[in-house]
Design goal:
Blueprint lengths: L28 H7 L10 H4 L5 H4 L5 H29 L5 H6 L2 H9 L7 E2 L2 H14 L6 E4 L7 E4 L1 H28 L11 H24 L11 H11 L6 H23 L10 H16 L1 H5 L22 H29 L6 H16 L7 E2 L1 H9 L6 H16 L9 H10 L2 H4 L4 H8 L1 H17 L1 H21 L3 E6 L6 E3 L14 E6 L8 H16 L2 E3 L2 E3 L51 E5 L8 H16 L3 E5 L3 H9 L13 E2 L2 H30 L3 H19 L1
Main location: membrane
Membrane topology: Multi-pass membrane protein
Subcellular location: Membrane
Length: 740
């Protein structure tokens, strides 16, 4: 038994008794293409790439008996949550609460037809709503709606025209929604759904955590019922916090107690829902229960009159007629609309993919862009703000048994009932309760902070991206913070690509496996140890071409150990190199004792050697470049590779390439890599082992040829064949005497 302080030894790895033997020709790229014809590429048209009506794919296959009841239960549960969240998130968007109900209803109608996810619940989301609110507040602050009023107690007092302000904010929000929808529709039509890939998980995690903090601060003043200015831009959250604490003495106790109790109760019940989700068939709709109870208490006690509590007051009953937003405002919100459209899409696709993988189906990223674009355009005509999906609401829809977007349509029906019949009943509801519901739903986003230590252990660069994006979004605001996070993320990628890793490879004996000579032992070198295998683990482009040249130069220098002196180039062993003629010093012809100064070789890879220059004979014959990790080349990279090949050919060193992908070879052809007669496709091999076997055959052939030529030379030098035989016999006798 091991002592407490002893380190446990890892269990032995299983030994694999299976092996394989492959017998095939050595393939270079030219031979392989001649034997195996490439399949022509099929390019789909734009119409083929787009599935305009995905509903036609799944609705005819709908299983009424198996799915309908589950969708009804799920739709009712999701609709109750969506009704409350729509009202709550309207506070984040800086529009009247009733318009949140519209935003929870209209987007579902179009996504049902054009969307490809079966489980996401379309509607408002706190991060996106807050981004909309920042645009609304910047374009329609309270200061733009001040009016003068006089009465008996105060003369010339300044008041806010709330009706005009709210109308202007609704117009701005709906206009922004229309513009976001247009951008998303264009992105989908141009097939650039891949843009979401640039929003890496660490970046999204840091951004949403910062957004959760922004949401918390924005709702904190509502829970406390403390009035502050509407700050936007850099350090706005800091200014808001300072003003909240400066005015904290004016906290309304009725609103504070109601909000605090709502947060505690909602978070406690949500925790119970998570712990006992396998035992509870339907999650407890605690937000709905708390809202009904709070509304009843507020109405019975008359909190507005007796305690000056802030209540919803006015919720429109029924639907408003469609209205065209103000297109003239597009220019003022164009920049923000791009970030909102991408963030909204990224959140929806990320959530959709989670449930698509869980339930074994796929979603089309480009079609999702189109679906949300159409939904936001349609919603913008009905005074809504930008829609995406909410994690908590989608979790309710899926966990309660939702099978398809039929559950979404039923949830929209529940919201419609609330709009038509329950608007007036919810008017006594305190705003602090809605704000508390928003805060209670931020727990999941705040818990992402716990991922940072784990992320740091896995990949420090990703952890730094997370922290940087989070801090930038808190300090600079969500728009600039997201941009700063993207730029920082791109910078880390550029740095990693610009300074890639490279390794000299050695062969594992009796295998076709090649590993780094620095990391492994018992490797063997190339045939006759007169060559090297080099792996460059990066794309080759203008930003890292110098790194490629440096690693090749370093590898060759280690092989040659050449030094440049006044009298020419000498090898590491000190033997002079006769390929370079020594310079004649006319002014000082007799200075033999002057010490020579060794200098480092400087090679200009961008220019070819002069034709008449004598180049040194080097003791290597080949260099193999493993390009399996090269994903793309640009024109500068192709030109540099061509110069490298030609200059090594000048010193009788052959350069071979291995494991290049087909599209990389196509790029070489397009950029004229093979235009030179001395560069052919037969220097490209399918694998490193193919190249090494080819070199082994070359070495053997060369040895045979050298032996034949040597024999011929001896025959030519000797006039009589008998003299040659006698010379050979004398040599054999001398060898025997030496052995004795």
């Amino acid at each position: 038994m091991a002592a407490p302080g002893d380190r446990l030894e890892p269990p032995p790895l299983p030994e694999y008794s299976c092996s394989y033997v492959v017998s095939r020709p050595v393939y270079n790229e030219l031979a392989f293409q001649q034997q195996y014809e490439q399949r022509p590429k099929e390019r789909k048209t734009l119409r083929e790439n787009l599935t305009l009506l995905p509903i036609l794919d799944w609705l005819p296959k709908y299983q009424i008996k198996e799915w309908l009841l589950s969708d009804i239960i799920s739709g009712v549960s999701t609709g109750l949550v969506g009704t409350l969240q729509g009202m709550a998130y309207a506070l984040l968007a800086a529009v009247p609460v009733g318009y949140g109900l519209y935003s929870a209803f209209f987007p579902i109608l179009t996504y049902f037809i054009f969307g490809t996810s079966r489980h996401i619940s379309v509607g408002p989301f706190p991060v996106v709503s807050l981004m909309v609110g920042s645009v609304v507040l910047s374009m329609a602050p309270d200061e733009h709606f001040l009016v003068s009023s006089s009465n008996r107690t105060a003369l010339n007092t300044t008041l806010i025209d709330f009706a005009a302000r709210d109308a202007a904010r609704v117009l701005i929000a709906s206009t922004l929604t229309l513009l976001v929808g247009i951008i998303q529709l264009i992105f989908g039509g141009l097939q650039i759904g891949f843009i979401v890939r640039y929003l890496a998980d660490p970046l999204v995690g840091g951004f949403t955590t910062a957004a959760a903090f922004q949401v918390l601060v924005s709702q904190l003043k509502i829970v406390l019922n403390v009035s502050t200015k509407n700050y936007n831009g850099i350090l706005s959250i800091i200014y808001t916090l300072i003003e909240i604490f400066q005015n904290i003495g004016n906290t309304n106790l009725a609103d504070f107690i109601a909000g605090l109790l709502t947060i505690i109760i909602c978070m406690a019940v949500k925790e119970l829902n998570d712990r006992f989700k396998h035992k509870i068939p339907v999650p407890i709709p605690i937000e709905v229960i708390v809202t009904i109870a709070a509304t009843a208490i507020s109405y019975g006690v008359d909190l507005e009159k007796n305690y000056n509590a802030g209540i919803v007051k006015s919720i429109p009953s029924g639907f408003l007629p469609p209205a065209m937003p103000s297109v003239s405002l597009f220019s003022e919100m164009l920049t923000a609309s791009f970030s909102i459209s991408v963030v909204a899409y990224a959140i929806a696709v990320s959530v959709g993919k989670v449930y698509a993988i869980k339930h074994d189906y796929t979603i089309d990223g480009n079609q999702e862009f189109i679906a949300f674009g159409i939904s936001n355009i349609f919603s913008g005509l009905f005074s809504c703000f930008v829609a995406t999906t909410a994690l908590s609401r989608t979790a309710v829809q899926e966990s309660t048994g939702g099978k398809t977007q039929v559950a979404g349509i039923i949830s929209a029906g529940v919201v419609m009932i609330a709009i038509v019949a329950l608007g007036k009943l919810l008017e006594p509801l305190q705003k602090s309760v809605l704000a508390a519901v928003v805060i209670a739903n931020l727990k999941g986003m705040f818990m992402q902070v716990c991922d940072v230590p784990h992320l740091w252990r896995q990949n420090k660069t990703d952890a730094v991206i997370w922290v940087f994006t989070c801090m930038a979004s808190i300090i600079l605001g969500l728009d600039l913070g997201l941009l700063a996070g993207l730029v920082f993320g791109f910078l880390t990628v550029v740095l990693r690509v610009q300074f890639p890793s490279w390794n000299s490879l050695g062969s594992i004996p009796s295998t076709d496996i090649y590993k780094s000579t620095k990391n492994y032992k018992n490797w063997v070198a190339m045939p006759s140890s007169r060559g090297s295998i080099l792996r460059f683990s990066s794309p080759i482009f203008y930003g890292n071409v110098d790194g490629l040249k440096k690693c090749i130069k370093s590898t060759v220098r280690n092989l040659l150990r050449l030094k440049a002196t006044k009298n020419g180039i000498i090898s590491g062993a000190g033997s002079s190199n006769n390929a370079f003629e020594p310079d004649e010093d006319i002014e000082n012809p007799e200075e033999p004792d002057i010490p020579t100064k060794e200098i480092e070789i400087q090679v200009d890879w961008n220019s070819e050697l002069p034709v008449k220059v004598n180049v040194p004979k080097v003791p290597i014959h080949s260099l193999v470049l493993d390009c399996g990790a090269v994903s793309f080349l640009d024109v500068v990279g192709v030109r540099s590779l061509r110069v490298i090949v030609k200059e090594f050919q000048r010193i009788d060193v052959n350069v071979y390439f291995a494991s290049l992908q087909d599209h990389v070879i196509e790029k070489l052809e397009k950029c004229g890599f093979f235009n030179d007669n001395n560069i052919r496709k037969d220097i490209f091999f399918m694998t490193v082992h193919d190249a090494v076997l080819h070199l082994q055959n070359q070495v053997k052939s060369q040895e045979v040829q050298d032996s034949i030529l040597e024999t011929i030379a001896l025959i030519q030098d000797c006039k009589d064949p008998l003299e040659l035989m006698e010379a050979e016999m004398i040599e054999e006798e001398l060898d025997v005497q030496d052995e004795v």
